[in-house]
Amino acid sequence: MTDPSADDTLASARLLVAYVSEDDELDHVRDAALELGRGGAKVILYDRDSASAFSDPMPNRWASQDEGAQFGDPLSDQELVKLGREPLARKVAAARRAGVDAWGWLASDHGTDALVAYARDHGADLILLPADLEEPGLGERLRGETVDKAVEEATERPAGLAVVLVAGDGATELAAGRL
Fold this sequence. Notes:
Elements lengths: L3 H8 L3 E6 L6 H11 L4 E6 L29 H6 L3 H12 L4 E5 L5 H10 L4 E5 L7 H6 L3 H8 L7 E5 L5 E5 L3
Parallel strand pairs: 1-2, 1-4, 2-3, 4-5
Antiparallel strand pairs: 5-6
């Protein structure tokens, strides 16, 4: 990134939410988030793969008595293992071993709306998205996974979230928002 104001935005982030997957498809987004996290920001790896039309990735009140109460928000690597999300748990644990204050969260809904809502609800300064969502395929458009949609959602309030796009080579671009 060459824009000094964009560098300042990234450096001053205290909490960021990164749109990741359980496989290695979005590891470039995770890596960019962890690089920012090394500067002291808390990083939440938001697992897009956990969203399902048929079930919630977290226990609900009907699953068993008080089962939902045993999990925090965001989730530690140990909690992710208990929930059967070992791939994300390994990513969170590796980030913690590298000195990053890393956590995970399981998307319950498809699309960037849910990501932006989660980030806002938790007071995030910044969200990181893969740049290739700018040219989404049919599947991404049907699930509402587009950069334009995320930017619109993130900046609709006066103190909007900053949205950073991460290219496959790790290059970052401040798409919108401010801190």
